[in-house]
Prior knowledge:
Order of helices and strands: EHEEEEHEHEEEHEHEHEEH
Mean pLDDT: 94
Number of helices: 7
Helix content: 25-40%
Amino acid sequence: MEYIRLTKENLASEHICCALSSNKDIQVLSKKAWLAERLDEGLVFLKGVERGKCFIEYLPMENAWNPIEGAGYMFIDCLWVAGSFKGHGYANDLLARCICDSKGKGKKGLCILSSAKKKPFLADPRYLEHKGFEACDEADNGIQLWHLPFGPDGQKPMFKECARHPHVDEKGFVLYYTSQCPFNAKYVPIVVKAAKEHGIAFKAIHIQNKEEAQNAPTPITTYALFFDGNYLTNEQMNVNKFMKLVSR
Length: 248
């Protein structure tokens, strides 16, 4: 498969691989607006030419929207190959291109979020281990930071203290989220509305910049749901999922 790198010149016309095709869709609009601002900060979005979920998104650690310390590393926001694209080596292709690009930019290595066991919307730890990554830090909620150093391993990347012990002081449901995930533009307002209709305490905090993201009380900032101070999940909620969660 051929791959295309998003630029400011082609961003408006290219699909973004998340099963969203219309540029009028609020999910597409929010994601592309977020991407447009990140391109000037060194973000790379490389995707297959065919429509579907086959892409890698990464940027320099200092500009990552996560509370992580790791000067000189490249942070992978997302490596996603799904559906009919699986089993063709495309993930290996995308990762190899990321490694080559990062080495060319003088980076010390790569970082990515995962966990001891596969979690939704996180990299598969078995795949990462197969490609030479190792877990180098872990938060209390089981979210791990994995890294792939390019040379002799010096100081390893790590979570900032604010993310190491995910917790908020407020009661009820509290959601931290960003526009990095396009699905949030549609589903966050739906869940907020459902919570209000059912008299459920729910506060949604939309992280607006990297400074807020880098000081968030969670290693995952794309979507982090808390209840009565405790971290629950990074899995995006629709109304049915949320109401089932409430019932438990």
